[in-house]
Amino acid sequence: MLFSSHFSLLNYIITSYDSINGDLILSNENESLEEFTPSIEYLNWHKSYVGTDFSFNILNSGLIPLKLIKEKSKKYYMNIFINLQENFLEYAMYDIFFNKIKIAVLISGFMRNYNLTLQVLNSFYKNYQVDYYIVTYDILGNGSYKSDDYSNDKFNIEDLYKIIPKTSIKKYLIKEYAKNSEKVSDDLHINKLYYQSLNMYECYNLTKDENYFMYIRCRPDLIFQNLDLILENKLNDIINGKILLHDQYHDKTVLSDIPFDGFAICNFKVSEKYFKFHFDLEFYKDSPEQTLYHFLLRKNIEIVRDNICQINRQVISGPINRAVLLRNCGRR
Q: Chain-centre distance of CA 14, in angstroms?
């Protein structure tokens, strides 16, 4: 189909998203592609509603492949449409279709049982540009979850390259556990939370040379359930300044307001608050989860929840059996 305006093309995609079955063509009398100089106002709008890959090219004419249209969800286009400002759509049209949304995946903590977690996250590559940032220790951290009695199994960054392309791990920091585990409190929970939140903050600092549309904070030992679908359904919430957390009490008869503290997805504005949780530990509550929850409330960050993940407490090494992977992810 042929469209003569940016607005009519975007409107058609939103209203006919499910039935589009071919390439679309944008065509008018201007040059097919021209450069422009963006304003600060436009840059802020683009980062909030389009993405963080800026080409600074105006697409006036050209073929837009079906594959590129369907790489982004209907809600993505709707959010752009709802927040349109004059002339911004024509500036952004090239980036909307020909650039992928950039996501930073921030993994911090012991790298125990990382295989299943990274395999699921790695599947995001078909729809997003994904960069990984990692802060961890020189040991895997296998052992007790309720004490500091860990085995000395060594972690080697080279092992990750069997799952994630080496070029996708933008930066990493591997700390010597023996020199980074000094007690800061006699309370085991406070001690763990201190280093957990410090690793989160250090990991976030590694991203400072790049801009990202979305930030995923993740423990290395999680098993996900329908993460792609959940992310698509919650995309508008994330774009509009809410933080997505795992509802760890989703299957309990007694509901709780306290979400899981080992996973989060947020946009850039929320990330600037969330990853500085480490500097707020003086307000420690009864548990790490409660402390994080009350921190988010104090920072006026609205929380949305879903059943996203569970902790993988198995010790897994070597190649992954696909049947085991599907079973652990709650699928048959």
A: 24
Burial class of residue 137 (count of CB atoms within 10 Å of its CB; 0-12, 13-18, 19+): buried
27 and 70: one domain?
yes
**SS3 for 92?**
helix
Question: What pTM did the predictor assign?
Answer: 0.82
Structural domain of residue 74, as residue ranges?
A: 2-98
Contact 262, 222 (CB under 8 A): yes
**Per-10-residue mean pLDDT, the chain, length 332:** 93 96 88 87 92 90 93 92 91 93 93 84 81 93 58 85 90 88 79 89 94 91 84 87 83 63 91 91 80 92 88 51 37 29
Question: Which residues have CB under 8 Å from 23's CB, separation 6+?
Answer: 63, 64, 65, 66
Give, to the nearest 10 degrees, the angle between helix 6-15 and helix 88-98: 50
Domain final residue, candidates 98, 116, 140: 98
Neighbouring CB atoms inside 10 A of 16's CB total 12
102 by Cβ neighbours in 10 Å (0-12 / 13-18 / 19+) ranks as: middle
Note whether 181 and 123 are same-domain residues.
yes
* Cβ-count burial 265-302 (b if 16+ within 10 Å, e if not): bbbbebbebbbebbebbeebeeebbebbbebbeeeebe
DSSP one-letter string for 140-209? ---B-SSSS-B--PBP-GGGGGGTS-GGGEEEEEEE-GGGS---S-SSHHHHHHHHHHHHHHHHHHTTTT
